[in-house]
Amino acid sequence: MGGAAVRAVQQIVDGLATGSIYGALALALVLAYRATGVVNFAQGQMAVVSTFVAWSLTRSGLGVILAVAVAIAISLVFGAAVERLVIRRFERESPLIAVVVTVGLLVFLNGLSALIWGFDIKPFPPIFSTDTVRVGGVAVAIAALGSIAVLVAVVLALHVLMMRTRLGLALRAVADNPDSSALSGLPVGHLLMVGWGLAAGLGALAGCLVASKIYLDPNMLAGVLVYALAAAILGGMDSPLGAVVAAWIIGVTENLAGTYIGFVGNDLRVAVPLSLIVLVLLLRPQGLFGQREVVRV
Amino acid sequence: MNPRLPRLGALGLVAAVIVLGVAPLSATPYTNLQIALVASYGVAVLGLNLVSGYAGQISLGQSAFFGLGGYAGAIATARGGWPAPLSFLLACLLPAVVGLLIAIPAVRLRGHALAILTLALPLIGVPLAKRYAGLTGGSEGLSAPMAQPPAWSGLDYDQWAYYVVLSVAAVLFLLARNALTGRLGRALSVIRENEVVAASMGISPRRYKALAFTMAAAYGGAGGWLFVYAIGFISPLELDLLLSVSLLSVMIVGGMGSVLGSILGGALYVYIPVVAGTVSPVRTTLLYGAILLLVLFFAPGGLAKAIHRLGHWLGPWLDRVWPRRNGGPPEPGTAATRSEGSVSSMR
Amino acid sequence: MLAALAALALTLSGCGRDQGGEGSATTPGISDDTVKLGISLPLSGPVSDAGQAQLGGAKAFYEAINAAGGVRMRDGKTRKIQLVYYDDGYEAARSVQNYRRLADQDRVLAHVGALGTAQNAAVMPIATQQGMPQIYVASGARLFSADQQKNRWTIGWQPTYETEGETLAKAVVDLGRPVKVAVIRQNDDLGSAFLNGFTKGIQGSQVTVVGPQTYEPTDTTVDSQMTNLAASRAEVLLSAVAVIRLQASALTKVRQLGWKPIVLLPAFTSGISTVLKPSGADAYFAQLYTTGFVKSPSDPQWSSDPAVREFLERMKKYSPEADANIPNAVWGYATAATMVRTLETMTDMTRQGVMDAVRKLQASDIPMLLPDVTVNGSRPGSSPVTATRLLRFADGRWGLPAPS
Q1: Could you tell me the residue ranges of all domains in chain B?
Q2: How far is A153 from chain B (nearest CA, A)?
């Protein structure tokens, strides 16, 4: 491949890799939202806490894969607890108040992680090989491929869960109409907890996947959160596949715009995906993959 | 409701004005600066309340308007030599124009789509402020001493700034209160509840939402101008998304849809870090988050609502402690208990 | 409703105002047995690791001095040092408030060793107005030391970013042939100052700059920028990345792309344990250069150096929660040492006295500074520490480059 073409493809590949980072967190956001209708601003911070737990486990001798698995398991419980104890009160009242509660949680957890683990950045042991493959001059990190594969697998698994299992049906019912579900005998409270537990588990996975690349500290996912939110919204807040695809789109357009549009440069890169999103939402308010919302009077 | 409460309220108001008027003469520059900042952020939160609290439209862009107004003041007056009132006008109009432009797509969107649109403002605003460093001073920021205490006053910089900022803020608050207790406030309430119903009542949601956005932007810009007047400095960090999120948070904790809540919001924004820092300078984030969560848990309607509830409880207590001459507390259902007077309508 | 605000005002005002500036009866910050110093630092927020390290280093030095009895001053009294510090979360508005609080309420002698360029730039005019020293600002920005007439109460401490950039340029100019240098820099004054210094250093030579790419400190990765730079196939890479995690990530990406330039790193992000090892840069690149004016505690060549061992011991004893490997820890420690030396040489026990002592200070034995790096506060328009050495990575350590 010619030099210019290699560079372009490299930017696209890099964009997919960065997009996967956004997408992993976006998945967790979407799941929490689907369960309770609340946008969880603390999702990234919860993921960071889980990643710290995994890190501590690796420091005490556990292999990285086992440590991650244990951290995910702990996060399932953690997420459920947060829903029950912190968020439950505010779910019905007003979405705006619930969001601010999650902001409070974000700040609190940030302070807590700093208290327990300190502010210095910590290298996280890699889950995948640190080698790189060359395909026609384009460098692709094995870790990036691995993350993308995991992401796709998770989306598929979620699809199967939501569409083909009783639990998934129950979760969807509760998200759609909690009152009718309660009347039909579904344990609404427990299902809400399951929703957030799954989201927290996904967040833990996301954090552990990216930590070896971007290094672990209490502020690791602060910048990522905005992108993950943007991806989730572009995809339509209730579609896991949408969130991941949107995240890839964001990652790639950012890189291409920053490289090839002179006016944009590196500092205004974020403007391009944002503008795209606003445009899409003006034409299609439910996002790329979302369901059209009907407001009844 | 106890008719003595509004009278007490008025008395308290007069006392407050006196205290606020005299305090800066003997208080330290530090305290004067803080109160001026409370007023500045309070104006910005009030603007946010207009669009988010009253009209129910989520806006994450208030910090961009704040910064725009602040830069307008800094560049026009400190660099360009414009007289302060002129730059103040600019600081309100420029953001208002941008707010109106944003309102055009914004009124068509709802919820998350609106959130992303407004979020784009600070995300694009900060790099722009850094890029045009020749004008804005870039990432190092702009030193902008705007307050010029006139010789006849004999006041120091911080005292003069205090008086100017508080006076302007007071006027802005009164204007907003008047607008909100009238037709605008009622229209926005209906729109917040249900836009379809509003439309069927002849209230155009789009028109009013656009108005709310524009006013919110103007107030945000005014707050920014007051901020620079008080502190003499501005940098792109002042436009940051973090400020938008913080303003939203303190708006809710202070009291959504409440003028008093906006002042409390400004006070919270300034004083929570100070309080947290006094307890432990190293653990400020942890304490900040804890305070936020605690207030939300125990006063989810916001502090302003909690204070109002205190007022309702205060009435009967006052009667018991200090019985009125025309005999005993009024029975429920009589005319005296009808909600009226300045205390309860001053939301 | 305004009653709430009034109640607030009432409780907070009361008498406290210092009528007439510094001409008050009691000398702020100095009593018979204590010296009170203050700092405002980013202890939370995006650069909290640097802020906590800076605080940790300062605390470690001051506590050690206190444990040994205190600082012996020219008026014959030995005083203990009390450090008052506040968090500003890297926000300029809070830095200004904290400075005023330290000046008005805590009445400290001086504001020493603060971090953050924009934050301290906001404080600078207030320092001039208020007459409290804002000294040894831990920033490489020129503006703190440049105009000593206008900003009489402010001075920086360390070599400027321009000086760093200029020093790195030497490594490339010494090659003596036409060379392309690919550049990535932070998108702010720190980054542009660095590049300006580098550009000045290559003036008149056959070295040309390609790029430059910029990045924001909040970026998740700089992969895109490194890819663009790699496409230039330049022989040299100036990776002026000031965020430790991004530097590690940048060097990793360069390695993955199979590009092997000569690499120039800023001192702040050249840590062996924090950047070179995690990114694999120590093994991959043939030539790595950086600058330095302090001893890096993780560098094996200093492992038996008494000053470094003392530093590490004190950090462990007095500031265990701070990371001693972050450069800010060393800066905090060394600025504290500079401050103590300033206190020792003060003849006039007032805030003005501090500034006089700062301007006369000449010291060549401040701990943790590289050999031959001295402190000299008497040069107008210049920070007290200006010397910075070009270092080359070899045998797992940073050392002075062999003459070519």
Answers
A1: 27-239
A2: 27
Nearest to A223 among C49, C218, C228 (CB): C218
Q: Global pTM? A: 0.90
Domain count, chain C: 2
Q: What is the rounded CA–CA span in Å between residue C285 and residue A226?
A: 35
User: For residue C14, is it within any domain?
Assistant: no
CB of C54 within 8 Å of a chain B CB? The answer is no
Burial class (CB in 10 A: 0-12, 13-18, 19+), C395: exposed
My answer on whether C123 and C165 are in the same domain is no
Whether residue C222 sits in one domain with residue C175: yes
Question: Is C251 found in the same domain as C186?
Answer: yes
On the question of pLDDT at A104 being above 50, the answer is yes
User: Which residue segment(s) compose the domain that C364 sits in?
Assistant: 28-159+307-376
- CA separation for the pair C176, C182 (Å, rounded): 17
Residues from chain A that touch C320, judged by Cβ atoms under 8 A, are: none
Shared domain for C46 and C103, answered yes or no, is yes
Gyration radius (Cα) of chain A, Å: 19
Q: C214 with A265: CB under 8 angstroms?
A: yes
Task: Tell me which chain A residues have a C-beta less than 8 angstroms from the C-beta of C326.
Answer: 120
Interface residue B28 vs chain C (CB under 8 A):
yes
C259: Cβ contacts below 8 Å, ≥ 6 apart: C230, C233, C237
Please give the structure tokens belonging to residue B297: 């848990």
Please report the ipTM that was assigned to this predicted complex: 0.89
The predicted model gives B85-113 an average pLDDT of 90
- Contact of A223 with chain B, judged by CB distance below 8 Å, is answered with no
What pairs with residue A260 in β-bridges? Answer: none
Domain-located, residue C386 = no
| B297 contacts in chain A (CB < 8 Å) | 89
C351-372 pLDDT per residue, tens: 999 999 999 999 999 999 998 8
Q: What is the pLDDT of residues C203-229, one digit of tens each?
A: 999 999 997 999 998 899 999 999 999
The verdict on residue C300 lying in a domain is: no
Phi, psi at B26, each rounded to 5°? -115, -10
Distance, in angstroms, between B319 CA and closest chain A CA? 34
Q: Would you say residue C313 lies in a domain?
A: yes
User: Chain B residues with CB inside 8 Å of A104's CB?
Assistant: 249, 289, 292-293, 296
In contact, B37 and C97? CB cutoff 8 Å? yes
Nearest CA distance, A74 vs chain B (angstrom): 22
- How many contacts, defined by CB atoms under 8 Å, are there between A and B? 127
Is there a single domain that holds both residue C325 and residue C259? Answer: no
- Residue ranges covered by each domain of chain A: 3-283
CATH topology of domain A3-283: ABC transporter involved in vitamin B12 uptake, BtuC (1.10.3470)
**Cα B144 from Cα B233, distance rounded (Å):** 5
Tally helices (H) and strands (E) across chain B: 15, 2
d(CA C336, CA C222): 35
**Nearest CA-CA distance, residue A202 and chain B, Å:** 22
Nearest to A183 by CA among A194, A192, A174: A174
> What DSSP letter does each residue of B159-213 carry, written as one string?
HHHHHHHHHHHHHHHHHHHHHHTTHHHHHHHHHHH-HHHHHHTT--HHHHHHHHH
Cα separation, B92 vs B44, in Å, equals: 11
Neighbours of C148 (CB within 10 A): 17
The per-residue pLDDT for A69 is: 96
